[in-house]
Each structure stands twice: as structure tokens, then as C-alpha cells.
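Lab notebook, bench 4. We co-purified these components, and the gel suggests they stay together. Before we commit to crystallization screens, I want a quick structural picture of the whole thing.
Request: model the full complex, all chains together.
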Amino acid sequence: MTTTPIKSVDWEVFVAALVGVEVIVDAAQVAKLSQDYHTFSPILQRQLAGKVGDIVVRPATEAEVLQVAAVCAKYRVPVTVRGAGTGNYGQCVPLHGGVILDMSRMQRIPWIEAGIARLEAGVKLATLDKKARVSGWEIRMAPSTYRTATIGGFIAGGSGGIGSITYGQLRDRGNLLALKVVTIEDEPRVIELRGDDVQKVNHAWGVNGIIIELEIPLAPAYPWVEIIVTFDDFMTAARFGQALGNADGMVKKLITVFASPIPSYFTALRQYIPDKTHAAFLIVAESCLELLPGLIQEYNGKLTYQKSAQDVGKGVNLGEFTWNHTTLHTRSVDPSITYLQSLFPTDKSLQTVEHMFHHFGDEVMMHLEFIRVNGTVIPAALQLVRYTTEERLNEIMRYHEANGVFIANPHTYIIEDGGRKQMDPEQLKFKQMVDPYGLMNPGKIRALMTQ
Amino acid sequence: MTTTPIKSVDWEVFVAALVGVEVIVDAAQVAKLSQDYHTFSPILQRQLAGKVGDIVVRPATEAEVLQVAAVCAKYRVPVTVRGAGTGNYGQCVPLHGGVILDMSRMQRIPWIEAGIARLEAGVKLATLDKKARVSGWEIRMAPSTYRTATIGGFIAGGSGGIGSITYGQLRDRGNLLALKVVTIEDEPRVIELRGDDVQKVNHAWGVNGIIIELEIPLAPAYPWVEIIVTFDDFMTAARFGQALGNADGMVKKLITVFASPIPSYFTALRQYIPDKTHAAFLIVAESCLELLPGLIQEYNGKLTYQKSAQDVGKGVNLGEFTWNHTTLHTRSVDPSITYLQSLFPTDKSLQTVEHMFHHFGDEVMMHLEFIRVNGTVIPAALQLVRYTTEERLNEIMRYHEANGVFIANPHTYIIEDGGRKQMDPEQLKFKQMVDPYGLMNPGKIRALMTQ
Ligand SMILES: Cc1cc2nc3c(=O)[nH]c(=O)nc-3n(C[C@H](O)[C@H](O)[C@H](O)COP(=O)(O)OP(=O)(O)OC[C@H]3O[C@@H](n4cnc5c(N)ncnc54)[C@H](O)[C@@H]3O)c2cc1C
Ligand SMILES: Cc1cc2nc3c(=O)[nH]c(=O)nc-3n(C[C@H](O)[C@H](O)[C@H](O)COP(=O)(O)OP(=O)(O)OC[C@H]3O[C@@H](n4cnc5c(N)ncnc54)[C@H](O)[C@@H]3O)c2cc1C
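Here is the predicted assembly.
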């Protein structure tokens, strides 16, 4: 497998070979479609500045994807696959130019059955959700970007989100049923992976196959209620979140806990969150509604906002203040703030959370997202960091790790340096097979650099 | 509150006062309706032998229940409420004669909405399930007796069952939404308890109010598949069960693990479970089906039986070999066998299970039911015991407790000596209010004996 793609391409000849496929060559548009949301990280902002593709190609069918793949293989052109470009680690930013393969026109949904959907990679999560709801189902988990993000991009670049409190993360067995990928070879093939084999491509950042179609399990579409509860004390808020997470009889989709002053960055919600209070943002099934006041009372919380299931779609959407939307809203007020991604150790008493909360004070503002990990509810966190220097940022991350907190570093564009630490050998093997010329998203895998 | 009810009743006068309500006086029938399944316990069998009611009353409406309650209060007659009489602790057996109040004619289902049902106490669980499925819902959890058991009896006398792997137990906040009870007073009242107040009556064995109507949350009716997996090694089977329980992306309704020779007692299933092998009985959503082989392989299991969702209702029903049906089937072959009810400590490595398995060998045959407790999947167990003496049975239970296993002793008809250890003061307070003459299921509460 070659790791340094050939760079001298006659783009006119190249584009001519793509006859029938939509192509964008306008430099401003190409530059825009070479971006993603790595800008949340001051480190990545610097490292990826000026990285752009040469052209954007927008296939609409499997046949067109095969055509593009063949042409890219022939001319040894790097390929950066792109969904909606909402990824946070520069996964979509081409390090070596080439083709930006925009999958967002592939929007067919072949079928939705009881509990399973088959859909093309470019389908927006919100579109699937709307369609599935007609028959009583919805997506199991979604990033807070679900209005724009594509399912292909979520599987290839995301990890979990709203819904992970019940179903765990995308990597968990059962949350992805099948994948159809196109290879980049002289004669590109279509390969369908099913069952455990999906792990060969799951969360692989578009390095080993162009995902064109997927099968994912669905969740029942409960009538959901959105709720804000405020607390005078942060640890009480956190313990409330853990207790609700542990309450097996209560069906939930989101348990987010913010330390003050994070909620003060949410302009649209200020009326519901008094200054200096800490807040829990919840999405729970309507059937829990009568039971929630008892739990809130146990933790001295105050319910300040409630949007009923019938009003979903109206007014603010609470989910769009959670997960990395928290960082988005905060940065829109104070762009010097950046964030961490972490997973606290299994410990229902939340000692490590408490320690970090006090240890860093205002420099690292606590933002917990409770999720299920290996059968147990624990807090993930996307802490907001008042950024000073790269050294200090690294120091903060090392301190967390030294105290048993797992850090998925969001300030790197190298797969292994982020959440995963080591490239799955199966994924590398699969890459060798489907991308023999090493054209897919080159420069993102450490294991291939040291070869 | 009186605790010793008045015993001399002129039954002719009494029955006359019940004009319009169905009454059974035939001694054979009354004796039959004074029984439950306490016979699984040699201890209870002896203690409760010969205990029968005087008459059976079968109201069909709220008005009739109020009428019965008033008459019982007037004549100070003990009342033993009864659903289907499938309880295991003699909860339905009258210690002081009196009226057996059979609720099984109260079968209305006022409404089923998205995720919630309201129903009368005498509705059979299977009936509710069938009706809810029409709109895509089903009961969250059910005892293996769901074909005959009533919802009133399940709430008043049960704990959980098939479905508890996902939703925990009946006592967990959120699994019961509202209760309507009739008091036994000179002028009986109807009281509706909602939200956390339901705990005043939840699992109270019919000592503090006649439940006439309930509101319970429903679960989505996935297409379910029934599966048997066999293993050469018991602990590998147990670890497989734990791993499947921890797999957040796999939707399940049942994970039961049997040590050999338990499966050999299931005559109808012998062809699927080779001699000397251990078995896992599973009910999982169809959408997990492709992922299961990978997990089974990791644990060297062998899938020997699979019934697809379309075939549910045909052939054997796997659920009816689990929970206390395991004991039923085993006792039908060897009536000298009895059982335990226990909850292993939270420990995903299952060390205590392993210790007990080896410690007791064939005397205590391991039967695990994985359930969620406070947000974590742990094995409950209904171990089968080769009974010798009461002393040895107690010794076995004490040994478990000494090793951190929680025992809900099924060999006692005293509430506090079973699973609950102490009577909830709120339940006692509520009893004082709704049963001022102490007529309801007298003799089952230790706290009232020592008064
Ligand atoms: C405000 C904000 C909030 C966010 N919240 C969350 C969150 O809650 N949870 C979460 O997991 N993420 C979150 N993210 C990250 C991101 O939005 C999601 O992961 C999203 O699902 C990515 O989808 P996309 O279509 O934008 O993918 P893109 O960013 O376009 O692509 C992501 C990766 O997938 C690859 N890829 C895309 N399509 C394909 C394909 N068809 N075949 C092969 N590879 C492909 C790309 O090459 C890239 O490596 C957030 C980001 C932002 C900016
Ligand atoms: C083979 C077998 C398997 C079993 N499996 C399970 C299991 O998996 N899980 C489980 O939890 N249980 C199990 N049980 C126990 C029992 O079957 C269930 O708890 C069942 O739900 C009881 O319902 P029932 O209608 O038979 O109640 P009954 O036995 O009639 O009554 C149970 C208790 O509730 C009270 N009660 C009944 N109706 C009312 C009412 N309307 N108002 C007030 N009090 C009332 C009674 O006085 C009694 O104390 C099993 C029993 C057997 C024999």
C-alpha cells in the first residue's frame, strides 16, 4: 500500500473522465467544502489552516460512486469523503489536496421496518428520524448536529450522543447492522459487511472504503418531554444525573449536567436558569413525568422549564444545547474557550468528578453527559476549558488521565491520538484490501506513517 | 387498629348483605380459591396446610367492591384479596378464614395510549399484552405466569420477571404510575395514588387497600426472537449472560442461565440441550440477531434453538421455562426439590456466583436471571435446592448472606422475612388509614404482631 499519493494531476482530464457526475471546481466553494468544525480546537485551527482539496465531486448513485472511485484510482488522487462536514477533528480536511467526495446527494431510504432502517450514506439524521416516526420508530442515538449531519458521517466520524444514555455508543455491538462500501481500486467493487464485520469500517474516518449504504437499528419513538432542572450545588446536580441514569424504570434520552457558569452562555435559555445555578437538561419519556418531581425533590432541584411532547419542534430544542453544541454556544460568546472529551471512571459516587470540579475551578467548567458504557451509566464529559497555551491544555489532559479519566483528545487529527489510542488491526487489514493505493484520507493514521 | 379480627360471623346474614355480588360458598371451590403456589416450599406447605377462607366473593365493578368492603367492615371479617392465586409465598392464603376477595372479574381496560395503559386489577397480563400490541406496545415486565396472573396480583405480590433485564423491577420508580384502591371502612372510599405515592401500596400483599385500577407504563413491542445457547462450561455460560446484559446496543427481554442438570428437567426441550451442557435462554429483539453469533462465538457457545418473531405463539414458549417456571418444571419431575431467591452482589466478574457454584455442587443448582438493579446488570438467581431439612435450607441461605448474596426468603409468609426485611413505614401508615379494623390479609406483617 502506497502512503504518499501521487500529486501531479491534470484536473481537466480528470474532470472529463467524471462525465455525468456533479463536480465543483469553484475555488471558494471547494475551500468551504474542505472545512469542518475542527475550529473548536485552537491547536487544530493552526495545524489545518490552508488545507484544501482540488475539486469537489458529488455523486448521486452507487454507479456514480463506482465511476468516481475508478477515476481516483487511475489518477492516484487522494480522496476525502465528506458528509455534512460537521466533524470536530479535521477528519474531513484533506491534508494532501485531491478530491472532496461529498456524499450528501445520496439520500435514498430503501426501507424502514420494525426496528431497522436501510438508508444511503448521505441521508440526514433528522430526515431519517422524521420518516421513521411515521411508523413509531426513531434513530437510537444522534449527535446534537442531527439536523445537518449525515448517517455516513456519523458512523464514520461520530461516537454517540442524544440517546447514548440508553443505547451506549455507536461502537457498541448492535448499534450498526450492515454497511455497503465502495473500494478505490482499478476496478472498484461494492462490498457489504454485516454483523460483527461492520467493525472493520465503523468509526474509520473514511480511510477504508466509501460507505454508500447502511442498516441501523431503530428505537421506539416515545413521546419525549424536554426539561430543565436547576440546583444550587453542582455535585448535587451531578448526583441527580447519576440517580436518574440509574433509575431503570424511567425511560430517558438525555441527561446533561452543566456547572455554572456554562448555562449563562445560553442566551435563549437565560430566563430558565438563574445566575450562579447549575443545571440538568433532560429528555425523558412522557410516562416518567409524574415520577420526576419526587426525584428532583430528593436532590433539592427546581424544575424551571418543561416542553411537552406535543410541542416538540416548537421553540427551543434542548438537545441543541448539549453535547458539542454546548461548546458551540459558549464559543459564540467567548471564542477563546475550547473543550475536552472524557469519560469518567465507573464510580456511582462520582468522586473523580468532584475532585476535578474543585481542582480546576473556573478554568475547566464541568459539562457532563451521562451515557451507558458496558452496561453501566457513567458520566462522559465535554468540559469547557479557558484556553491559555497548548502546554497547559496538555497538562490538563494529562492530569485527568493520571486520575483515571479517559481522554479522547479532540485536539488532534490523528485517529490513534484521539479516542482510540490504537488503530484496529482489522481496520488496517481492510484498508489494505479496499484502498491498495492508500488514497483515502491520507495522513490521518499514525500506524501508516511509521511504516 | 385491631389486629385480631372478630371471628364469629353469621354467613347467611353476611351473604344476604352482598346481594347482587357473585358469591361462592361451595367448600371445595372455596378451598381451591384459598390456595396459591406456596407449595413450592416444603416449609410453607406445612405451615399453611388447612388454611381456608369461609366464602369467596367475586365483584365485577367498583360499586360492587365498595359494597363488599362495607359489609366486611361492618361484620369485621378478614379479607384476603386474590388475583389468579399464582403467588409463591402464601400471600393469598387466609390465615384467619373470612372472605376471599377474588378480583379476576374486573377486566376492563379503559385506555391504552402511547406508552401507558390504564386497566382494572383483574386483567390478565397476557390479555393486556395482546391488546397493547395492536398499537405497538407491550407490558414492560411480566412474571413467567403472565398467561394467568393478574396485574393487581403482580403489583401487589410480584417483583419482576421477563423484561427486568431492561426495566429493572416493579419497585423501581417509573414502573408503576397510578393505583386506585378501595378502603375497608364503615364507609369505604376510593383513593387514587399517583407518582411516588404508589409506593404506599406497591408490593404490599393486599394488606392496605383493594387495588381496583392501575396505570402502568408500557414498552415498545419489538419483534422478539427466542434462543437457546448451550455451553460446555457453566461459568462461561454465566459470563456470556453478563456480557450480553452489558451490551448496551442489544435490546433484550430475557437472559437466563441454567447450570446442568437443570435443563434436563425440561422434557419438551431436551432435544436442544445435550446432556451435561449448561444453557442460556434468551429473548432478544430481531435487530440483534446478526450480532449474536459473534458474541456466542467469543464464549464458545452453540446456538441450538431459535424461534423467529413470526412464530411467537407457536410451539414452546421459552419464557415459560424461566423464572419460577424453572422450579415448576423441575418439581413436576422431582417434587423434593425446592428453591431460593437471591440477588448476587454487583461484580461483573461473577466471583460470588462461581464460589457458590463450586461450594454447593449438585445440592444447589444454579439458575441465574440477569436483571438491571440500580442501573447495573447483575444476576438474580432462583437456585434449585435438593431439600433435606429446614435446618439445612436455612444454613444454605445464611451461607449465601454471609457471602454478600441478598436472599429474599421464599419460605415464609411474613412480608418482612421475605425480600423486604422491614415493613415500609409509609405502607403501615397507609394501612392504618385504609384498614382501620386490621381486616386485610391479617397475620402477614411482623411489625403488627409485636404491637
Ligand atoms: C456543534 C457540534 C456538535 C456535535 N455533537 C456531536 C455529538 O453529540 N456526538 C457525536 O458523535 N459527534 C458530534 N459532533 C461531531 C459530528 O457533528 C458528528 O459526528 C456527525 O455525525 C458527523 O456527520 P457529518 O455528516 O457531518 O460527517 P463529516 O464531518 O462529513 O465526516 C466525518 C468523518 O466521516 C467520514 N465520512 C463521511 N461520510 C462518509 C462516507 N459516506 N463513507 C466513509 N466515510 C465517510 C469523513 O471522511 C470524516 O472522516 C458534533 C459536532 C459539532 C460541530
Ligand atoms: C410458576 C411460577 C412462576 C412465577 N414467576 C414469577 C416471576 O417471574 N416474577 C414474579 O414477580 N412472580 C412470579 N411468580 C409469582 C406470581 O405468579 C406473580 O407474582 C403473579 O404476578 C401474581 O399474580 P396473581 O394474580 O396470581 O396474584 P395472587 O397470587 O392472586 O396475589 C398475589 C398477592 O397480591 C395480592 N393481591 C392480588 N390482587 C390484589 C388486588 N387487586 N388488590 C390488592 N392486593 C391484591 C394478594 O392478596 C396476594 O398477597 C411465579 C409463580 C409461579 C407459580
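The pocket of flavin-adenine dinucleotide (ligand 1) is lined by residues A 36-37, 80-88, 91-92, 103, 121, 143-145, 149-150, 152-154, 156-161, 205-206, 210-211, 323-325, 328, 441 (CB under 6 Å). Worth comparing against the SEC data before the next meeting. The CA atoms of residues 150 and 392 of chain A lie 35 Å apart.
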